Amino acid sequence: MERRTFLRTLLLGGGALMAGGTGALLLNGMGGEAAAAPTQFPVTRTAAEWQKLLSKEAYEVLRLAATEYPGTSPLLNEHRRGVFACAGCDQRLFDSRTKFESGTGWPSFYQPIAKNAVIENRDTSHGMVRTEVQCSRCGGHLGHVFDDGPKPTGLRYCMNGVAMKFIPAA
């Protein structure tokens, strides 16, 4: 599916918009399912503990699989050297050297920092088949991966900025 068509489908195709402090969030999961992921992660918390730890927007994305509105994340324009880590558990996810400008409105990377940093699951929400990306340490929803990225991998890890934090290189 062409990126423009995907974005139009995502934004207009059935997700519920939720107003947030940094912009609207789209609830993911309407009319679809994600493949079974591990039910136990090294970092686990109750819903109340996650809500206390995370901002409202980060909770909705990481724990409820919402999607931040495109172009609203400060991490979209983060170009310093460093690492992008999970906002829920601090696991290092992406090196800044793998970040690229995808034109989608979300921070994009062509590969995770390590193979075991993320888990990928089949996602059939919104009437399409996609691959969901989760943090392998806490199970937080990060975004999706597509096969239209640059070399050397050809992949585009399209991540919700609110699901991550940036750690500048020392």
Commentary on this structure:
With 170 residues, the chain is of the alpha+beta class. The protein has a single domain (3-168), classed as Peptide methionine sulfoxide reductase (Metal Binding Protein, Guanine Nucleotide Exchange Factor, Chain A), CATH 2.170.150. The protein is built from three helices and twelve strands. Mean pLDDT is 84; it is low at 1-24 and 27-37.
List the helices and strands and how they pair.
Elements: H1 3-12, E1 17-18, E2 25-27, H2 47-53, H3 56-64, E3 66-68, E4 82-86, E5 92-95, E6 99-100, E7 108-109, E8 118-123, E9 130-135, E10 141-146, E11 156-159, E12 164-168
The average pLDDT is 84
Strand content: 25-35%
Structural class: alpha+beta
What is the radius of gyration computed over CA atoms, rounded to a whole number of angstroms? 15 Å
Strand arrangement within the widest β-sheet reads 6-7-11-10-9-8
Low-confidence stretches: 1-24, 27-37
CATH hierarchy, class: Mainly Beta
Question: Gist?
Answer:
By secondary structure, the protein is α+β, with helices and mostly antiparallel strands.
List its salient traits.
three-stranded antiparallel sheet, 170 residues, Metal Binding Protein, Guanine Nucleotide Exchange Factor, Chain A, disordered N terminus, 3 helices, alpha+beta, globular, 12 strands
